[in-house]
Amino acid sequence: MDWGLSNRLARIIKPDTGRSVMLAVDHGYFLGPTSGLEDPATTIEPLLPYADSLMLTRGVLRTSVPTNFDIPIVLRVSGGTSIVGKDLSNEGITTSLKEAIRLNVSAVALSIFVGSDHEKETLLGLSELVNQSIEYGIPVLAVTAVGREMTRDARYLSLCCRIAAELGAHIVKTYYCDDFEKVVESCPVPIVIAGGKKITEKDALKLAHDAVSHGAVGVDMGRNIFQSDNPVGMIQAVRAIVHKGSSVEDAYGLYQKA
Ligand code: R5P
User: Fold this and answer.
1) Measured between alpha carbons, how far is 219 from 205 in angstroms, rounded to an integer?
2) Cβ atoms of 254 and 246 closer than 8 Å
3) Is 205 in the pocket of ligand 1 (CB under 6 A)?
4) Catalytic: 14?
5) What is the pTM of this model?
């Protein structure tokens, strides 16, 4: 692996713990002004000191993140669909690599939709993004998006994660599931988990704990942080689990105290 690519990955997955707390605030690219992200700058600013990286689109990066804050950026470069459209899986590449380089990103991210009508396009999109980005030492994070009709089980998620890695993704973002270790064992690149829809703070902390205990290198969590009644407390609690191996109870105490 070349130096630039390794260095960018080390900015995202922290070498001292081998783990990562990514803050996902890219939801607006298909959900619009989703709850908690109506004013991205106000939501993001207090969370920046606790996130290892920020996953977002170029629009929110340009408008809502200070240029003088040292945080690695994972730039979402896929989209073109919306929650009210016909088919969320019909995504394409929205952002050029030149733009990603101009924005000084540490990685680029896109979704793949395995088993959907647009499986082939999204998988070839991943392959092409890897072809281009490795020329410049920029890692690619593949998000294994799950359509309504797909079951989030170890068999399906193993298939998605392995395909993403085979096509060249450097990090894979997926969902936690029963037998998650099987997903991790059959994927040769690091896995982070999405938080999914808002659940109770304790359940979200348990999810993070289960994921790292079963082999995830961390989380790429959004709604369960920024839709919490105490987002700063929540991200601190998630950090304690991911980087310090805290128990769910101890982390929950941190959330309540913050
Ligand atoms: C979905 O495709 C987006 O990448 C979200 O950023 C992702 O689902 C993670 O956010 P959450 O923890 O809210 O599920």
Assistant:
1) 11
2) yes
3) no
4) no
5) 0.97
Return the pLDDT at 102. Answer: 97
Number of domain units in the chain? 1
Contact between 130 and 140 (Cβ < 8 Å): yes
Check whether 190 has a pLDDT greater than 90. Answer: yes
24 C-beta closer than 6 A to ligand 1: yes
130-157: pLDDT as tens digits:
999 999 999 999 999 987 667 889 999 9
CATH of the domain at 184: 3.20.20.70
CB contact at 8 A, 136 and 101: yes
User: What type of residue is 177?
Assistant: C
Note the Cα 236 to chain centre separation in Å: 17
Distance (Å, whole) CA 201 – CA 234: 7
H or E element: which one contains 92?
strand 92-93
Q: Token digits for 1?
A: 């692996």
Catalytic residue among 98, 120, 173, 257: 173
The tokens for 169 are 């993704």
What per-residue confidence (pLDDT) applies to 150?
73
The two three-digit tokens of residue 32, written as one number: 């619009």
Is ligand 1 within 6 A of the CB of residue 89? no
181, 210 in Cβ contact below 8 A? no
Q: Report how far Cα 107 is from the mean position of its chain's Cα atoms.
A: 11
Measured CA to CA, the distance from residue 122 to residue 120 in angstroms comes to 6
Q: 108: burial class by Cβ within 10 Å (0-12, 13-18, 19+)?
A: buried
* Cβ proximity of 234 and 225 under 8 Å: yes
Residue 187, amino acid: C
State in Å: Cα 5 to ligand 1 middle.
24
- How far, rounded to the nearest angstrom, does the alpha carbon of residue 160 sit from its chain's CA centroid? 15
Domain of residue 243: give its range: 3-257
- Indicate the DSSP class of residue 14: B
